[in-house]
Input
Amino acid sequence: MYQKKLEDDIRCPLEYGLEIFGGKWDSRVICVLNEKKVLRYSEIRKEMGNITDAVLSSTLKKLITNGLIQRKSYDEIPPKVEYSLTEKGESVVPILQSICRWSGIFHRDDSAPVMIQCRKCDYNR
Output
């Protein structure tokens, strides 16, 4: 089993924030759940497009561990599991929208496809 050689060295609140929601897929999952409110795994996968199951699964686990999303299981057959943002997760959305607007000002690539959720956070203002 892999063991880190060094402990995490987070000394700055910005480093903490980037560690929590700064991964490639973290912010995208947060935006999808913000838009749709409650989704099952397969629905998140469909919304995300080109994410693999392994990466989506590990991203969801990380976001759950960090308290940004919650997983609700229903005791039925077939099993039903839903994901949604927590209050902490919802508090990240304005930050991500702000980053998105900033990026829209300084990075323009009109040929690149834009996720539906990105269009909703007014990225091109």
Q: What stands out?
A: The helical segments are 13-21, 26-36, 41-48, 53-65, 87-106, 116-120. Residues 15 and 56 are 23 Å apart (CA to CA). The two ends are 47 Å apart (CA to CA). Strands lie at 38-40, 69-74, 80-85.
